[in-house]
Amino acid sequence: MGKTYDGITEELRGFIEEQRMFFVASAPLDGGGHVNVSPKGLDAFRVLGDKRVAYLDLTGSGNETSAHVEENGRITLMFCAFEASPKILRLYGRGRTVLVGADGWDQLASHFEMRPGVRQIIVVDVERVQTSCGFGVPLYEFQGHRDMLPAWAEKKGSEGIERYQREKNVASIDGMPTTLGKALP
Questions:
Q1: Which of 10, 46, 163, 165 would bridge 111 by S-S if both were Cys, CB 3.0 to 4.6 A apart?
Q2: pTM above 0.90, yes or no
Q3: 79-125 pLDDT, tens per residue?
Q4: Are β-strands 118-132 and 45-49 bridged in parallel, bridged antiparallel, or unpaired?
């Protein structure tokens, strides 16, 4: 059953690296605001240490996580085993957004394969690591990553992506500013 850890152990790191998708959850402080949960894939997650992780965030239709961590820092990452032995792993922590070209970008970006449409890197300082059984998670067979998002971004080009980000990524659905929104002139 469930267990809590002081940090990400080598065994848990191996589990994380085996997963092909993860989920990001965040929320504003305002109880009337929307809780956000986003699935992520495309080999975009890295363990940077036993208490620090990061993921490469590509341009999408919203930018909720950035707005929420800008406001309050709270973030939860979840990994589920959909193959082999059942397990769920949650990383609770404080997140921050690092934009392309900002201080620390080059060092963080060196951990990832850059793709068209890169928007930011979300860094999480992990405060709690917890596993649970995952007995209720169904078994699925991995067929491959979808290439639609990188292909969409490549087709748009850098100017098209910038226009799209200005239109869709500068505020949350609750109207909260994102880190990107605060950085754009």
A1: 46
A2: yes
A3: 999 999 999 999 999 999 999 999 999 999 999 999 999 999 999 99
A4: unpaired
